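Contributing new records

If you add data, match the layout below exactly. Sequence lines come first and carry their own label; structure lines follow with theirs. Keep one chain per record. Anything else will be rejected by the validation script.
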Amino acid sequence: MAWYDEAIFYHIYPLGLTGAPSKNDYGEPVHRLNTLIPWLDHIKEIGCNALYIGPLFESVGHGYETTDYKKLDSRLGTNDDLVNFVKKCHEKGIKVVLDGVFNHTGRDFFAFQDVKKNRENSRYTGWYMNLNFYGNNKYNDGFSYENWGGHDLLVKLNQKNPEVKDFVADVIRYWVSEFDIDGIRLDAADVLDFEYMQMMRSVANEVKQDFWLMGEVIHGDYTRWVNDRTLHALTNYTLHKAFYSGHNDHNYFEIAHTVKRLYDMAGGNPLGLRLYNFTDNHDVERIFTKLSNKAHLIPVYILLYTLPGVPSIYYGSEFGIEGKKEQYSDASLRPALSLDDYKDALKENIITKVIATLGKVRQDVMALSYGAYRELSLTTRQYAFSRKLDSENVIIAVNNDDAEAWFNLPAEGINEYVGVLSGEKIKSENGMLNVCIKANYGDVFLPVDSKTNEYVPIPYSEVEKKIEKEEAKVKKEEPKLHDHVRPGVSYEEMTVEELQLSIINKMSMNGPVTDEMRRTVMENVYHDSLVNWVKSFR
């Protein structure tokens, strides 16, 4: 057991939240990081006790094209600002995890600059992958190199080079000694060399007790990365996808089967495969945007906080904000926010209230961190399971249907439970618990004891009112089929939005356009693909 086993993360993309310029002029530091200190009280208020923040270090643009691994980005401030920020986090009982971008560097990084200057004679030629001084690149350097993700801005490091390994090890030690961080999230861990990660794990074991290495991995057998020699945990993209599609498609089988497969990988042990669970992050659309029925936000967050794994909230999603991925830009996923605009959220915003309540329950009830998982009931629209640790048993039930649903669940020898959100007390009969879950809702049932009196119920009428308001807002803002489509313009000249609306218009001529059909169209933001799609209609 370590601190991260009981963590509830808050995730901040600092360049976005602080409203920093998209390009770094490497000028005088602007102390924007300090503006995030007031957010720490908010993070605690909604029940989070850990912070994943990054990228933070000097870069030219979005932060992942690192220029200097030992200097806070000038757009955010100085190293002293980061020292102070981490100290403030620790004073409030918040652990701090930073982004580690060790797969590639930016072009302004000292080693690459030396290669540009000295070409074949540079002592750093071995630091990068597949340097070819007979080739070229989009910047017309007169040589080519292996980049990351097709972007020449990101120059891929040679992870087998001993000097590169020593450099990264030194960076990790520096971050701990200088800033006192508690862990690192490894960017693009699915393409990191395993010996490279083993080196980082060795350094992690050395620098601090329970220092956490979490890797960004999207696909594959997660057990390849999570073990005693490489990483402690991975991003759970598999469950992230199931969260929204399992609700949009009214298919709880997808979520339950995903959980079972991952739990089997873990050997039936909640700590056998540590996973970082999330509904959204700085690279994907907001869960509010992805859900066809906004009422499903509540059951989604109930699952996030109660299934095996460590839950994480991406800044702003606790308020239910929108965030749609755009072509060539992730800016809409990483907005600047003012905390003052949400100062009454805990009183007035049902989503914030539910998340704060779930955060408190997660901290209070150890079964949600360490308890064995057991599926109790499953249909396409209803799902129930338990988390049990010794004599502590928690029952979770969710319903994605537009009508209420009844569950008949084993009480595990406990006479009476209480719903954390509803406040409803239910006595067992003949060893079973008969539970009614309202439409598009859910609840967490705890055995009645002194602790349960600490949770303030959230009336379902308040939930219905909030959901109706949000859905009305979405319908009001949804463009009509012919809005924003310029007459007489060829498909090739249309914007992405015009092409999307044109496709929906074509679909409507062949029959009703469902929410799922509309969502599929709106998620496609690639111009050429949309042109081909709209031309496919006859």
